[in-house]
Structure formats: structure tokens, C-alpha cells
Fold this sequence. Notes:
Elements: E1 19-25, H1 29-40, E2 47-53, H2 60-65, E3 72-75, H3 82-92, E4 97-102, E5 106-107, H4 111-118, E6 124-128, E7 130-134, E8 140-145, E9 152-153, H5 155-161, E10 173-176, H6 177-183, H7 196-203, E11 209-212, E12 218-223, H8 244-262, H9 276-288, H10 293-313, H11 318-333, H12 336-347
Amino acid sequence: MHTLAVERIERQNSEQKMVSVVVTNYNYGHFLADAIDSVLHQDHASIEIIVVDDASTDDSRHVLSAYLDRVQVAWQTQNLGQISAYNRGFGMASGDIVIFLDADDRLKSGAIAEIVQAFAGERVVKVHWRADLVDVAGQATGAHVPAKLVAGDMSKLIVDKGILYPSSPGSANAYLASALKQIMPLPTDSAEKHGADFYTIYGIALLGKVAIAGDGRALSDYRLHSRTDRAVLSFGNAAQGYRETERMGLRSQTFQRWVAGWSEQRISVTLALTEFSIEKNSFANSIFAQAGYWSGLKVGMGGLKTLVRSIRHRPGCALEKLALTTIILAILVLPRPAGLPIAKYLCDPSSR
């Protein structure tokens, strides 16, 4: 495994650690002030805010004009996507810890102080926490993500099993800057411009340990842009209907080349990567996309092996894995009207 010299964030000096919050924005002018204010109102002593505006065409420039004395702004001259925004924002960051905050999300009061404290553990390179789901107006829905938070060394899971550990979404992660320097820049030759957090979340886990901030409490808000649709078996703000397994296949190949490059071949990721949340969504959507019960059953059986593998190697106890397997089988064999609400509950946290 690649050896990395990283500084431990000592608890007694945590208030002196500089935290860089990189806000990535594209046409989220109506949310942007909310995101910036959530950082400005933190009680941690040393914070810098960097906004990367990815050539927005809305009122983002006008919104940012009110903050130019308190934030640094990088104006992209053309829309290059989230990966490029991460790279540029990190290039401007001078903090010991870096948070990439999507412009439609926000931090809760006191979050950064707790996040910094969580880095005090030995070899911690990434800290994550739960996020409350809020609607487009910023009102709490009563749900949160992720359902499961893990801590510890996740590198063997990725390298030896090809399994991605359960993680919070992008804005609910913080990174040790000295570790980020080892893996940046993120690969801009990917087939897509987005999904930057995929590379930071899983790439940095190859260099040290993951820790949990907030003792399981939500430290940020994740904004949903649309109402829950009973027929949609997925979560988040990405375009619906995208084939997640195909995208994961492309990302796996890019991830493998990228890791080999920055590690100078000392880390080898050879297995195709998979993750339970992706497999369960693909499984459920493939079943309910079919016109009839038997055709759905046949398609579901075809994806069952990979899904069960993702459950088997997922961090957790045997009872939890048995429960997930039972739910998956119920979705597969039950009549479609009975299986659909179960699938919705499993695949979309906002429906719980």
C-alpha cells in the first residue's frame, strides 16, 4: 500500500487549523447566498471561502458581488464541469482541511468545529457526516443520508474486493489537504464532467482512514430539487433514467488509470468497482422497467449475483446483510404492486 506522510490534526490545536471551503457553483444563484452564509456563520476561528463559478448564466455574479470582500472567487470563462471546478478550487486553497460544498447545499451551525475535531484520530484523511434532506425552499423533509456511516481503513475493501464503502454525498465530506495533494488533480479526461466527489471520496481512502464527525448527527443540509415521485427508484438531483452500472463501468476504468498515475503504480486497483446503493438502484429499475412480471423477474435474476456480492462485502454485521438480502428477494418475487413501495423505500431515502 502506498505510504503517505500526513499531519495529524492534534485536538489541542484544532482551533488553529485553517479550513478551506470550496463552493462550486453553476447557475445556483438562488441558493448561493444560503451556502456562503452557512460558512460565514461558523464559529471556527480560521476559515477561507473560495467560490468557483463555472460560467453561470443566471444572477450568480450579482449575488457574489455582495461577498467579494469576504470570499475569493474564481470565474471560469466556460462551463467545464464539477471536476474542473474541484481542481481549480483546490489549487487556490491554503487550508489544512478542505470541504467541497455544492452551492445548493449548506453547513449547519457549529459544523466545522466538529469536523476539525474528527481529524484528531491517527491517520485520518477523510471525515464524513450525515446530511439532512431539505426541499427546494430549504425546509427539512425529516429524512437524512446516508443510512449507514462507516469509519476505519477502507483501502483493502476497494483494492482487494472492488467494493466502494458507504459514504455521504459530496458536500458532507472533508479532506486532509496534505492527502488531497497526493491525488489531485482529478481526472479531467473522464467521459463526464461531473461526479468529482467520486474520485475524492474513494481515492483519498486509499491513503488513510475515514472518520465520522458529529457522532451520527447531521452537520449539513442536502437540498432536493424535485418532489418525491413514487415511480422513480433513485435518489438525488441527477437526471433520471441514467444507467448507473454503465457509468460505474466507465468510472472504474478512469479510477484505475488515475490511481496508477498518482501512486506511481504503487497502488493497483484491478477489479471493477461496485457499490450497494448503485447496484440496488440498477436492480430495482431494471425490474420495474419491464412490461410484465415474468420479464421483470428474468431481468432481475440476471443482476442478482452482482447485487448479492455488493451486500456480502459491504461493511456491516451478518444480520444486516441478511435483512438486505431478504428485502432484495422480496422486491424480485413479489407482485409488482407490492414490490414497488418496498423498492422505493430502499432506493430513495427521501421517501422514508
